[in-house]
Amino acid sequence: MHDIMVKPWGAVEQLLLAAGSSPERLTATVQQIGLEPTVDVIVDELLVRCDLPPLDLVCRFQLEVVCGAERAGRVLTIDGDKVRVEPGWSDAVQARIRFIAVDLVESLFGPAERREPTQREVTYPWSDTSMDQTVLNDMAAMRAASRRWQQMTVAMHAVLIACETDQTDLGGLSTRFGSDKWANFHWYTRHYDRHFARLRSKPIRLLEIGIGGYQDEDTGGASLCMWQRYFPRGLVYGLDIFPKPGVRGPRMRAVQGDQSDPKFLDELGRRLGPFDIVIDDGSHINDHVKTSFGNLFPHVRPGGLYVIEDLQTAYWPGYGGDDQDLVNADTSIRMLKALVDGLNHQELPTSHGKVPSYTDQHVVGLHFYHNLAVIEKGFNTEDGAPSFIPRHYLSESIDLKK
């Protein structure tokens, strides 16, 4: 048995699922988890979503989250484009932000179409001498006070907008996190948007093969960060042959393993799946691509998607591809071409004696783009053309000249 070491999701998974259910279930889930662990999940998510422009001044906010008679506090210190979180309370803050726990969890993790604007209370308890009459008569001091206020409101806006529905453009997320799925080498994000949009508000599980960064334990994971942000209710796994302990996030886990090992892949699917989306951005070696698809596609949910990137290697001999024989059975492209035949297996004469394979029965759609293929999973149960329709061309009864 392969040793798949993955930290349990804990409270975040419970909240992701409960946020898409009834208010009563969500309230019960928060009460079961406890307010402090719930606030830990909330703050971790805010740190993922908070897009701060560089600030010159340090801003401190008191976050208060309440559930019934209970309340929990966190002090957020914003310094430049970084946020530091401390548990507890402080009077030395520029603003206090108060949320109801259930409402905030629903806003962060609930389906976008069901979300109402987040209920919040913002107060400004701070006072400084910048507002006394002496300062009001000093233009330089007035400008300094105005600038401090502006910086504080910019930081406040970033925190509050992080609590709302996140519909950030995928191409923008790609550039923000440094993924090459947009512009630099590829133009994949527009195709991903087309196929993934329907799943964006769902509590999905996504697996991406290939974390990046090669042997450096602390680099890579740009795409995983992008997916974590794009799917606000998603749990994201990354698989890499190298250990990646430095790649982590509140809804992101790195798994070490070999995508060319069938037994490992099957166990991975059983342990961590079923997956709604699998993306192969791994070694791009043709044998590895085929092995990964053969062993992970069964662990994709019906209605889910399996994506293979960088199919140009199917034509590169150095990756096991072939740029001469385009029907070479050993390439990933040839595997995909065979899936097209399998999609239409009901039209083949029964005399062929071919028993439909797993992919024949479960591939229900194929979409091809430059160097990219998206495979839809489902139940391929549509019947073939009725038997009374002739299988030969009725040339004698049709005059092609008319």
Give structural notes.
Helix 1 runs antiparallel to helix 2. The strands form two sheets. A seven-stranded mixed beta sheet has the order 8-7-6-9-10-12-11, sandwiched between helices. The protein has a five-stranded mixed beta sheet with strand order 3-2-1-4-5. It has helices at 11-18, 23-33, 35-49, 101-109, 133-136, 139-161, 170-177, 189-196, 222-230, 262-272, 286-296, 332-343, 358-362, and strands spanning 59-67, 70-79, 82-87, 95-100, 120-123, 205-209, 235-240, 252-256, 275-280, 300-309, 363-369, 372-377. The N and C termini lie far apart (68 Å). The chain folds into two domains: 11-161, Nonspecific Lipid-transfer Protein, Chain A (2-Layer Sandwich); 170-377, Vaccinia Virus protein VP39 (Rossmann fold, 3-Layer(aba) Sandwich), CATH 3.40.50. The chain contains 13 helices and twelve strands.
- Name of the CATH class of the largest domain: Alpha Beta
The largest sheet has its strands arranged as: 8-7-6-9-10-12-11
Task: Output mean pLDDT.
Answer: 88
Secondary-structure class: alpha/beta
Approximately what portion of the residues adopt beta-strand conformation? 15-25%
Label the overall shape: elongated
Largest sheet: 7 strands, mixed
- Within CATH, the superfamily of the largest domain carries the name Vaccinia Virus protein VP39
Number of domains: 2
Within the CATH hierarchy, at the fold level, what is the topology of the largest domain?
Rossmann fold
